[in-house]
Amino acid sequence: MRMLTGLFAFALGCGVAAAQNFPPPIGVPSDAPGAPKFQADPYWPQPLPGNWVLGQVAGIATAPNGNIWILHRPLSLVDDEKGAQKDPPETKCCTAAPPVIEFSPEGKVLRGWAFTAGQGYEWPKNEHGIHIDTEGNVYLGGNNDGDQIYKFTPDGKFIAQYGKEDGSKGSNSTTRLWKPAHMTTDDAAGEVYVADGYGNQRVIVFDVKTGAYKRHWGAYGEKPTDEKLSAYKPDAALSKQFSNPVHCVRLSNDGFVYVCDRANDRIQVFTKDGKFVKEFRVEPSTLQNGSVWDLVLSEDAAQKYLFVADGANGQITTIQRDDGKQVAQWGRHGRQPGQFKWIHNIAIDAKGNLYTAEVGFGRRVQKFVRKE
Q1: Is the peptide bond before 248 cis (omega within 30 degrees of 0)?
Q2: From CA 200, how far away is CA 225, in angstroms rounded?
Q3: Contact status, residue 194 vs residue 185, Cβ threshold 8 Å
Q4: Residue ranges of domains in the chain, CATH in brackets
Q5: Which helix (DSSP H) or strand (DSSP E) does residue 16 occupy?
Q6: Which helix (H) or strand (E) holds 279?
Q7: What is the Cα 294 distance to its own chain's centre?
Q8: Is the dihedral of CA 369, 366, 181, 186 positive or negative?
Q9: How confident is the model at residue 118, as a pLDDT?
């Protein structure tokens, strides 16, 4: 026993010594005075009904009434989660939850719905992105070839489609979206903005009521191209094009458009007519699939902060909206409350609480309560 204890202590000591030679982590935690602080709520959401289980949760959004909506991928369930669906059943687990679910602020499931045939639309082949407008309408997208943006009533009745699968190609098509990642609405102006996305390299705007094309732009507000992009390198000149994917688009209260250029590790800011204003780099040493997966603006009237979901590094970074300065960072890769595996989307409610959605093998949602 003494020998084993000694060997363990020796191995532990070697491990510590070896760890001291490792480079520092990409995300060094920081916490500036006055920066918002959060605490994970391990009991949110409440248990799902009906033996439901979630697949990859590709989208999360808050509604004006305070409820939280998610969009997940039922087809991403793994084999051992499908036993109850087989004939005869092989196990008690499970039933795929409907792809669209509405939760109360307390985490109770209020309703869920799926594709209804005969309404004149095609369901996204790979669910990706959700948004709720001021009237409570639900916007969904998909990032597979042919997927467009779809608008529904809160109970799942189809209203409209934005983008047409008409065979047109490229980042300057005025009709066809190519694997759109995210969307948001300017309800006062009657416009829907799309981060388009996994195939194209642009932001495009449509009229909410008619679906008519309004305008589009690429990185730095320039006309996008579809040239093959070089792999991102932290020390190289900044790309003049958006990467694939252009992963989110958000609007501020004071009329600016924030775009997640995921693999280029940056946020670009524009006026609503597409004029470039500035950019912020976030964890610029990040390779793989990038550091800027999604963002939301803080709930205060001035929207002082941006909360950036960083899927590659498994963390949330808080930066000041005016100058991009990092003031806080928290989270790490893992499966415990407050940890992340591919944090994909982020949402915020009127109280400043954050909600996160995870894809890959994360396959869950979490709530982070604003503490101060």
Answers
A1: no
A2: 9
A3: no
A4: 26-370 (2.120.10.30)
A5: helix 2-19
A6: strand 276-281
A7: 5
A8: negative
A9: 85
Can you tell me whether residue 368 is helix, strand or coil?
strand
CB atoms within 10 A of CB 192: 27
Q: What's the pLDDT tens digit per position in 219-275?
A: 999 999 998 888 999 999 999 999 989 999 999 999 999 999 999 999 999 999 999
pLDDT of residue 74: 96
Give the pLDDT score at 325: 95
Q: What is the largest CA-CA distance in the chain?
A: 78
Torsion of CA 235, 241, 247, 253, to 10 degrees: 100
At residue 33, the pLDDT reads 77
CA–CA gap between residue 341 and residue 303 (Å, rounded):
27
Give the mean pLDDT of the chain: 91
> pTM for the full model?
0.91
Whether residue 240 contacts residue 222, with contact meaning beta carbons closer than 8 Å, is answered with yes
Burial class (CB in 10 A: 0-12, 13-18, 19+), 136: middle
